[in-house]
Amino acid sequence: MNALRQHLRAGVTIAISGNTYAGLGLNAGCEVWYSVCGGAVPEMAKQITEATAANAHQRVIAHVQGRWS
């Protein structure tokens, strides 16, 4: 993200969209996660955010893929 950020002007936000890889994007340096998930299934969004904070990427991916398949 730092390499990308060098090419952007100040104030531009780098974001991730998509529930399955939200944790990876946030941990890689994305500042925002755009998703319907937060409004539609807030408990799942909370679990994704908590797993992201704990660097538990595989747990997030497995949980989300199981819900969307």
Mind sketching the topology for me?
Layout: H1 2-5, E1 15-17, H2 22-28, E2 32-34, H3 37-40, H4 42-53, H5 57-68
Parallel strand pairs: 1-2
Helix pairs in contact: 2-4, 4-5
Uncertain segments are none
Mean pLDDT: 84
Q: Which structural category fits the helices and strands?
A: mainly alpha
The total count of helices amounts to: 5
Cα shape: elongated
List keywords for this structure.
single chain, 69 residues, mainly alpha, two-stranded parallel ribbon
Folded structure, characterized:
With 69 residues, this protein is mainly α. The chain has one domain. 57% of the residues lie in helices and 9% in strands. The chain has a two-stranded parallel sheet. The longest helix has 12 residues. The protein starts with a helix and ends with a helix. The mean pLDDT is 84.
Concise description?
The protein has about 70 residues and is mostly helical. It is about 55% helix and about 10% strand.
